[in-house]
Structure formats: C-alpha cells, structure tokens
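[Help] Beginner question about ligand-bound structures

Sorry if this is basic. My supervisor gave me a protein sequence and a SMILES string for 2-oxoglutaric acid and asked me to "get the holo structure". I don't really know what that means in practice or what format the answer should be in. Inputs are pasted below exactly as I got them.
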Amino acid sequence: MNTLRDDWQREGYVVIRQLYSPERVAWLRSTCERILQQWRSECLQAGKPEGSTEATSMRHLNHPAYFQNDANGLREMLASIADPDVLTLCRELFDSEPLFRCTSLFMNPETQQLEGDWHRDSQFLYSDERQERERIEEATGVSTHIQLQIALVPSEDIEYVPGSHRRWDTPEEYAIRRANAGANNRSAMPHALRIALEPGDAVGFNAYGLHRGRYHANRLRRTFMLTFTDCRTPVSDYFSNQPWFQKPGYLAGLNQGERSLFEAFVSAYEKDWG
Ligand SMILES: O=C(O)CCC(=O)C(=O)O
Ligand SMILES: [Fe+2]
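Answer (accepted):
No worries, everyone starts somewhere. Holo just means with the ligand present. The predicted complex, written as structure tokens, is below.
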C-alpha cells in the first residue's frame, strides 16, 4: 500500500485536507489578524522596517507579548501547534518524534504584486554551491524537517516542483533559481505545481525542493505555518530562539501531550538561550 510517507519521500510534499477543524481555523484567523496588527504597530513604533505593510511574513505568533492577560488565548495557540493530528502526521512522515521549531504567518502585502523567487532553503544554509549540491544529492527523500502551511483563507500561493528535493536542478531549473545571482528567479518554472488549499487544508513540504510563494496585494493571503524537525536533528537559530518558553506559567493549562512537545523543545534549545 502507498502510504503518506511514501508520497512524502517521493514527491517532497503532501496535502492534507481539513487538518484543522473549522473552529480552530476560525479562532486562528481572527487571532492571527490581531497579532499581525499588533506586530505592525510595534515594529512601526520601534522604527523597524520589517513590520511594514509590505512585509510578507512574520514569525513567533506564540510570543507572550501577544497574549498579555489572555491565558486562554496563549493556551489555544500552543494547543494549535501541538494539535494531535499535526503531531501524528509529522510522526508518520519522519518515522520519528517531531521537535517543535517555529510558528510563522505569511500574508499579502498591501500594495505590491510580487511573484516570489524560486529557491531551495538549502541555498541560505550553504552559500558554497558545491556543498549545497552535495547535500541535495545525498538526500534520499527522507527529510529532517517539514514546513506545514495551513490555509486560514483560501490559498493557491505555494508552487512546488514535485520530486525536486532529492535531485539537483536541471540546467533549465538552475538558470531560473541560481544563475546570474538569481536574476531570473521569478520566471515560470517547468513542472511546477500550484497547490490549492481551502481554509483548514494543509500542505507540508520539504523546503530543500524547489518552491516559491506568491505575494499579491489583491489576493488575501493568511497562511499559518508550523515548522518541525526530526527530534534527532535539532537546528538552533533565530527560529528556535524562544527564551519566553522559560517564563513561569508559560505552559500553564496544557495537557500532558502538549506539555511534552514543548518540554522537549526547551530541553533541546535552552542551552543556546543565554
Ligand atoms: O509560503 C511562502 O510564501 C514561502 C515559504 C517559504 O519559502 C519557506 O517557508 O521556505
Ligand atoms: Fe523557502
């Protein structure tokens, strides 16, 4: 029988319809909107350009600053990350225990119409292209991470080249993704698949495959993303740097399953939180 894990290893992505319940989607839709407004106004006050209305992503929606005097809200956000269906899915795909890494929100800018640039996330990790190529060519389809994007409004904003996570670029792909310092990286890509999601549907993808997003002012985009790694391969960086997990009471009210996910997260990364 063809399992979800077989598809994941072969294609580099999976689509799960209605991964989140309508109630959870409705709650996240309004909560993420509120968080986005707060983030923009705080960035504006602090003179930080990343919070401009043209921004297309933000991280760390589980930051306690978004849940002051709202213990129930924080608990609901953490429960959304540790949703049993999400963890079961990741366990199956990794054949191992998932380790939490980060929450993100992708949104449309207010005025720009931007096609995202084609990339593999490996190119940000390995600036030396030979190393990147070795890393991709030794891949067998087994992944150590997943980017799990859950649509909060209808979305066709992700494009992916199926199977590209376990092979290097063809010359045509390379000309688009990397040649001339990325001068052509917004061109149409052969064999790209645009993934259509209804609210609550999820696409999980291996970010070492060829992919891009889309950022059009006239297409509402609100996509919640959970990143997990295989617990055997933690990656410590800006995404995992979440020292607020050590605040007393941060995990209050969670059930045992939810709590274990975050306790494993803290013990994997707290040594780097200074
Ligand atoms: O969702 C998007 O717009 C792009 C996301 C992406 O490239 C990533 O998370 O690696
Ligand atoms: Fe990416």
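A couple of things worth pointing out: The chain has a mean pLDDT of 96. The longest strand covers residues 98-107. Feel free to follow up in the thread.
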